[in-house]
From TrEMBL, chain A:
The lipid II isoglutaminyl synthase complex catalyzes the formation of alpha-D-isoglutamine in the cell wall lipid II stem peptide. The MurT subunit catalyzes the ATP-dependent amidation of D-glutamate residue of lipid II, converting it to an isoglutamine residue. Residues 1-21 are annotated as: Disordered. Residues 338-436 form the Lipid II isoglutaminyl synthase (glutamine-hydrolyzing) subunit MurT C-terminal domain. This is Lipid II isoglutaminyl synthase (glutamine-hydrolyzing) subunit MurT. Forms a heterodimer with GatD. The gene is murT. The lineage of its organism: Bacteria, Bacillati, Actinomycetota, Actinomycetes, Pseudonocardiales. PANTHER family: LIPID II ISOGLUTAMINYL SYNTHASE (GLUTAMINE-HYDROLYZING) SUBUNIT MURT, MUR LIGASE FAMILY MEMBER. GO terms for molecular function: acid-amino acid ligase activity; ATP binding; carbon-nitrogen ligase activity on lipid II; zinc ion binding.
TrEMBL record, chain B:
It holds the Pfam family GATase_3. It comes from Saccharopolyspora thermophila. InterPro entries: Class_I_gatase-like (IPR029062), CobQ_GATase1 (IPR033949), GATase_3 (IPR011698), Lipid_II_synth_GatD (IPR043702). Keywords: Cell shape, Cell wall biogenesis/degradation, Glutamine amidotransferase, Hydrolase, Ligase, Peptidoglycan synthesis. Transmembrane segments: none annotated. This is Lipid II isoglutaminyl synthase (glutamine-hydrolyzing) subunit GatD. GO terms for molecular function: carbon-nitrogen ligase activity on lipid II; glutaminase activity. The keyword Cell wall biogenesis/degradation applies. Gene3D superfamilies: 3.40.50.880. One of its GO terms (biological process) is peptidoglycan biosynthetic process. It catalyses: L-glutamine + H2O = L-glutamate + NH4(+); beta-D-GlcNAc-(1->4)-Mur2Ac(oyl-L-Ala-gamma-D-Glu-L-Lys-D-Ala-D-Ala)-di-trans,octa-cis-undecaprenyl diphosphate + L-glutamine + ATP + H2O = beta-D-GlcNAc-(1->4)-Mur2Ac(oyl-L-Ala-D-isoglutaminyl-L-Lys-D-Ala-D-Ala)-di-trans,octa-cis-undecaprenyl diphosphate + L-glutamate + ADP + phosphate + H(+). The lipid II isoglutaminyl synthase complex catalyzes the formation of alpha-D-isoglutamine in the cell wall lipid II stem peptide. The GatD subunit catalyzes the hydrolysis of glutamine to glutamate and ammonia. The resulting ammonia molecule is channeled to the active site of MurT.
Amino acid sequence: MTDTTRETRRTAIDGAPAARTGQRWRVIPAPTPPPTRTARRLDLRTTVAVDLGRLAATLSRLLGLGSGGMIGGRLALTLQPQALRRLAIGRRVVMVTGTNGKTTTTQMVAEALRSQAPAVSNATGANMLDGHVAALMTQPDAPFAALEVDELHLARVTAEFEPAVILLLNLSRDQLDRVGEIRTVAASLRRALAQAPGAHVIANRDDPNIVFAAADHPSVTWISGGVRWKNDALNCPNCGAFLGDTDDDWRCSCGLARPAADWTVTATGVLAADGTHHQLRLSLPGHVNRVNATFALAAALRLGCGLDPALARIGRIRQTAGRYDTVRLAGRQVRLLLAKNPASWLEMLDLVSGNGRRLVLSVNSREADGYDVSWLWDVDFEVLRDRWVQVAGDRALDLAVRLRYAGVPVEVVSSVEDAVAAAPDGVPDVIANYTAFRDLVTRSRR
Amino acid sequence: MSREQVRIALVLPDLLGTYGDRGNVIVLAQRLAWRGIGSETVTVLSSAEAVPESCDLYVIGGGEDVAQVAAVRFLHRGPGLRRAVERGAPVLGICGGLQVLGISFVTGDGVRHDGLGLVDAVTEPGSGRAIGEVTTRSTVGGVGLLTGFENHLGRTRVGPDSQPLGRVVRGIGNGHDDAEGVVRGHVVCTYLHGPVLARNPKLADLLLEWAIGEPLEPLPDPPELSALRAERTRVHARNRK
Ligand SMILES: [Zn+2]
């Protein structure tokens, strides 16, 4: 298939709207072949840093202190502050960022790239610089890397090196007491892209905050998959004017506008810019994963992968770092779903609202979750009105009060295990936020 | 007003609704519904002409600086909110809502903006963000102990024309004396998220009684709400950063 990319229209973010001469298209030349797997010579300092980092990782693993990757990456970065830059030389790196779907999409990109050549990845959520170094250290000769990056850290990455492809998935409110507000994040992504003019950007045209971040980049492929959570994009991210319903095309008086779609996600697959439709047969559930898969596919094609082999590999992914996985907990099979913020809760509630399974929700408010749980009131739990729901976690009481006000019959339980152990036959669904989910995954592996 | 249908205005949620503030309206409507009283939520977006003056109760949330400045510009456009307040309609302002309802506020860039002056309060940036659980003791309308979560840079001085909503037991609050929030007549402002009315049902009922103009029959707190209040006023010292 043809990979078409819209050339930049110099819009207008920093000045008057440029004259529009209609859409200009160009066909991207055949993607360059992947770099050959010749061992690249690292400088001495980086080699030593990597060797010692690996040693530390191995020791940490042997001592049972965890997977060791983070410690190894951190040590290597301390010994060689330029480790990231050096390890990235000669590789084609795909960076994946956005509020939701980073880990899943990163794994999809890595798998798709492996249809062509080895790819390293940090698809475990270690998404700051030390996690990137740790991932790149694992196979210094792998020609590809798929790395998820924290939204506020992309600018630090592009200050170090220019990735081949950058994926901007979506932006919505998340841990406001920790991460900060959307506008700050969108502005930071915009700066990050300005530092990487040679990268190819794959961005969500249905999210005005992402459009704001990517609009001026010279090389963007726009994905249209729809956005369910709209409450962070009612107003123009550039000038603050009211945008109205962003399901339709919009154009702000400041010049920011919804770009035309290169890829459109459908109910069964994806429609490419050349009009061809491709079925997406995924093991992962829901529309949200068809959107993630489309981002991954666009990245893989950009780097020279074949469509069918890439799709086949994406389709085989059954779980990412425990998400969507059916695991054993308290002697029972349960399905684990992760929801961290209002936008991802909407997606997960949508996934479970139609089925009749027992439903357990678990919410914590530790540092990695954010201490404030006011966001529970941004989630439309009203869709669960016909269900009986059990709640657990550090903030079970906040959740119970929220559900009570939503008219949802609710029971507070001491743990998810207690709830599922007492459940009748069937596979209960458990939706948990970040640390609650992480702890469940750990306990399920015991 | 007619007791048939209480009209609750959610003011500018597109600009000032970052921290679950919509939840305050959910709580108000549901507490009426549990008593068999109907309500209508009037959502006033920044695409509207102005704030209608005919609602029975107004809720304004918080947001970031740019949004807050856009909100105050919008609110200055019409007399709706001021007239409603003169008529005695209750207004709840949260965080940024507190700041825009005051006399003035200074944004992070050092620019001073005129607020609506519905409460006697002046806000300036503090040295760092106040983030964490808060407990205050209020003398207003018998609401007693208030619990919430604060996350704000502004420090607010309450002037002689108004009084604080509560005295800080734990947390930062306004950052001057031990005051938290500001009240004048039926205009109640606070930095407390949570949302504040979800965690503090007495304050919710006080606003509803002001809106309706007569006492409401008491509602027993559901057990998880009593437990939540007990937990939050007990454990927050451990959670504070
Ligand atoms: Zn605009």
